[in-house]
Amino acid sequence: MGYRLVRALKKILASYSISDIQSMAQGIINQFFPEIEMPEIRIINHTHPTYIGNTKFVQKKDEKPTLTVELQKSILDDERTVHRTLAHELIHVWQYSNADIREKLLSSEGRYEQHGKSFNLMADKINAVYGKGYITEKSDATDVISQEKEFYILIQPHKDGIFGVTKFLRPSEKQKKEIQRRLQEGKAHIFKTKEKLFTNATDLNRFGGYSIYSNEDLQARLAEMYEMPNLDNKFQPTSVSSSWGKG
């Protein structure tokens, strides 16, 4: 079918080669978009789940436009999800490669045009081959990720019984310092979770700040977690070692 990934995808490490993804993308291009050039393809690894695929168009003065397709690393053990997501994003590459459509995409109405008539035209063409609903407006955002990664959240009181929350995976040196600062203030607590509720929280950074949810259910969950056993000791100065952020 021109898009088979090697079975080693299930064992992807930091040294993963992107050549398999490029081969899959080329197969989709040959089948549906022979007039477009292969975009740059990047694998990204974010805790934010609102998209598993993304297309970026960059136009710098006096330079050729560049198109980059991003795929979340967390989907790479599911061939069908990778193929669906790539096909979805390559529709956007095709849109940006067409001057007339690109002009609409870059206009003030662009957010409506992105998944408008031109997108549906190509989605229908792909769906005629792979089945109804294979490509949809949200097929780069709503696929179930088979093995969700645990991540850390740092919960701290805001005011009037409201809590703020930030998230992080394996902390950088700057994040370690910020974690220390917040813990030393004596109010923040750290927990590990897979809960989708908090995957759109802001990433912890050295400038402070946190996400504050207005949703009462989310605030109730934060309040409940705040009173549970925490992982603060794991991130105290006495425990700083090669175990930082592991486990």
Regions with little confidence, pLDDT below 50 for 5+ residues:
1-16, 142-147, 239-247
Instruction: Report the biggest beta sheet as strand number plus sense, adding barrel if it closes.
Output: 4 strands, antiparallel
- Counted up, domains total 2
Q: Between the first and last Cα atoms, what is the distance in angstroms?
A: 40 Å
**Succession of helices and strands:** HEEEHHHHEEHEEH
Strand order of the largest sheet: 6-4-5-7
- CATH hierarchy class name of the largest domain: Alpha Beta
Word description of this protein:
It is elongated, with a radius of gyration of 21 Å. 33% of the residues lie in helices and 17% in strands. A hairpin with a 7-residue loop joins strand 2 and strand 3. The longest helix has 19 residues, at 79-97. It folds into two domains: 7-130, 2-Layer Sandwich (Zincin-like); 151-239, no CATH class. The relative contact order is 0.11. Strands 6-4-5-7 form a four-stranded antiparallel beta sheet, sandwiched between helices. Strands 1-3-2 form a three-stranded mixed beta sheet, covered by helices on one side. It contains seven helices and seven strands. By secondary structure, the chain is an alpha+beta fold.
Labels describing this entry:
single chain, 247 residues, Zincin-like, 2 domains, 7 helices, 33% helix, 17% strand
Task: Give a summary of the structure in a few sentences.
With 247 residues, the chain is of the alpha+beta class.
